[in-house]
Design a protein that fits this description.
Distance between the termini: 26 Å
Strand content: 15-25%
Helix content: 25-40%
Number of helices: 13
Strand order of the largest sheet: 1-2-3-4-7-8-9-10-11-12
Structural class: alpha/beta
Largest sheet: 10 strands, mixed
Bound molecules: S-adenosyl-L-homocysteine
Number of strands: 12
Length: 361
Amino acid sequence: MLKPLSEKQQNPAIMPSIFSLELSDLENWLSEIKEPKFRAAQIYNWLYEKRVTSFEEMTNLPKGLREKLEETYHIHPMKEVARQESSDGTIKFLFELQDGYSIETVLMRHDYGNSVCVTTQVGCRLGCTFCASTLGGLKRNLLAGEIVSQVLQVQRALDATEERVSSIVIMGIGEPFDNYDGLIKFLKVVNHDKGLNIGARHITVSTSGIVPYIYKFADEGMQINFAVSLHAPNTEIRSKLMPVNRMYPMNELMDSIRYYIKKTGRRVSFEYGLFGGVNDQVEHAEELADLIKSVKCHVNLIPVNYVPERDYVRTPKNQIFKFLETLKKRGVNATLRREQGHDIDAACGQLRAKERQEETR
Ligand code: SAH
């Protein structure tokens, strides 16, 4: 099992965020302070429809309640410390949190809409050998509200052109299942029809494979899209790339995924990064096809993103297509991930690693 997080990683000494509250949490808080329940819907409307950035602006609330909110909850937007825009429309934001740590959020523009990639932790403790997010380890979990704020802040940027965030991918810095409670709260808030009202089928969560939480997530009964970072056709290669595999080996991972599919009736996506000479040969594709042939799934091939601190090399284009064709020939549903933000530091953790060297060493 993963070790429990330290108190500091779990409960940072910062003010609670108003965006961590589900509507029912807000109703409970209001009843504790002897305010009527209907105020919760009013507050939600200010937060998610009008998207105000202070309690002061909530003019239909009594002054006393506004003051109480101000004393109890944090509402201020995160400071934008850097922004990189790609020629393809991708924007990467570096935001600063209350306690000075920084996180990345990415807006991606697709023909089907605008998608936001959110971060769930400051850093990460899983140590995948190819990933920039894990440099410097885990500082702390994000509050649910700090994850919600990322979506809201991108939405505010889009408000200028009357565009909308239409989907969310939980594929930024951190391991979402290592911040499980924060993740679930976040999902409930953004999914709620009085919250950001983003449909479950427009939200994708990706995990490196923390098996006990895959079972738990299957039992939540949410219609969220589910992705697993597989990256290897067998447990030996996977352990070299992803230390988490030594804790939860591949056979246990595959069992939990089969349980998920049985329980939810949904398919899973496998992310498979192609790391030159490590897992990108035709025989690896054949082995992968055998591994997942009985699993209702889709494979997303990702050419490795170059990270200066990590020395993996990219697979040549023709080799990538050979790999893809091998999978397809064997009946596996597979696609090559379209790369965006190639001219900016869009891969997980890259911008933060560059801008905040003291945080990632
Ligand atoms: N911790 C979660 C969420 C991160 S999602 C997870 O592991 O799934 C981001 C995806 O990008 C993951 O599949 C991750 O393994 C992959 N990734 C990280 N660094 C990469 C790199 N340098 N090149 C290609 N893919 C990478």
